[in-house]
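User: What would this chain look like folded?
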Amino acid sequence: MTAAPSNIALYDCRDAFVATLERLGAEDRDVVAVCNDSVGSSKLAGFRDRFPDRLINVGIAEQNMVGVGAGLANGGKIPFVCAAACFLTGRALEQIKADIAYSDTNVKLVGISSGMAYGELGATHHSIEDFAWIRALPNVPVIAPADRIETAGAVAWAKSYDGPCFLRLSRVGVPDLLPEDHVFEMGKADRLRDGDDVTIIANGTLTHRAMAAAALLAERGVSARVLNMATVRPIDKDAIVEAANKTGAILTCEEHTIFGGLGSAVAEVVVDEAPVPMKRLGVPGIFAPTGSANFLLDEFGMAPDGIAASAEALIKRK
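Assistant: Here's the prediction, encoded as structure tokens.
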């Protein structure tokens, strides 16, 4: 059960990112883009063509790219620094820490093709540690939108926010989940479905799978709440505590290792504020093998029926 029904449209969130970035660029000349020879994969060709003097391509030099972004921000620009998430966060982590987080510099980090979107290229191209790396740094909100609508809202919010942030965007198509008039609020979860028996918390490419799992559970008489937790830091503590108290069990799903990511962030709140049975679904502390992102998510128990089965097992622990 990897794919949405054939009559449901799937959208690449990168398209919503670049459409919003071009609109913001037309409104404000201070909006610039920086990339690492990734004009194609970041889909920045349209931005380059419209604003040729506002796209800086540093080549395959991620540390330099982040430093250039910091310099532009210090000069009053609003840089969106775009690269494959695995290389942006892995190669340039020291620069992100020192030049952006420590300095609280107004740079928007955009991790493209996150999670296991580069599945066939293997472990070197998987970005399943980025939540953990960036979440540990002060001053940097960590955001993984669930669909094109939330992506557009998060990009617009990032431009208006006076400070750094990390946007995590996949290239894997996802269906629309949020209404067209949805307003992104940093640090606020969206309750996409109400329920009393268990709460499923997800973000990014896993949110629509969580919704599909909740539909399967409903057919079996299980009432599942679904929270779209787009912001991993700061986490929405109130939504987590309310869900724990109301449903008595929490299941998290993420395209990330189970160590240090969304599940860990939720567990920190649960253990401190509202202890209930909980399970984290994700990559179980290994290097993920090659294969498409959808295949790998299924293999790690995150097909809709796998999520539903984990939820049913969790309920039995209540």
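The first helix runs from residue 13 to 27. If you want, I can go into more detail on any region.
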